[in-house]
Amino acid sequence: MKTLQDGQYPFREGYYPLTAMVMTEAPPELEAFLAAHAAANGIEIVRDEPVELVCAAPDMETNRFLVFWPSGSERMHLLVPRHLATGLA
To answer: Concatenated DSSP letters for 4-35?
Structure first.
């Protein structure tokens, strides 16, 4: 996995320090939404490269997500605040 630099990373409408974040599998519905949004906007989600997606609509806040699709995984991963991640060992 590519190592992220220490700094601030987006999740929804805020930014968090890397120490407060964890990479986890995206829920299937969110994965489908993000993949469709990326495709509709000509953004390629490249395996093993973090990609920041910005989702905006007139009736909602601008949401930002850092996605990562690792080689050998069928699921897209998402950088989320640690307190929102579930199922971590």
So the answer is: PPSSEEEEETEEEEGGGEEEEEPPHHHHHHHH
2: Cβ contacts below 8 Å, ≥ 6 apart:
48, 49, 50, 68
| 8-state DSSP, 84 | G
Q: CA 37, CA 78: separation in Å to the nearest integer?
A: 15
Residue 1: its pLDDT value, please?
52
CA atoms within 13 A of residue 46's CA, in its CB half-sphere: 6
pLDDT tens digit string along 3-26? 788 899 989 888 999 999 999 999
Q: What is the per-residue pLDDT across 26-83, written as a single tens digit (0 to 9) for each?
A: 999 999 999 998 999 999 998 999 999 998 878 878 889 999 999 999 999 999 999 8
The residue type of 78 is L
* Contacts of residue 30, Cβ cutoff 8 Å, sequence gap at least 6: 78
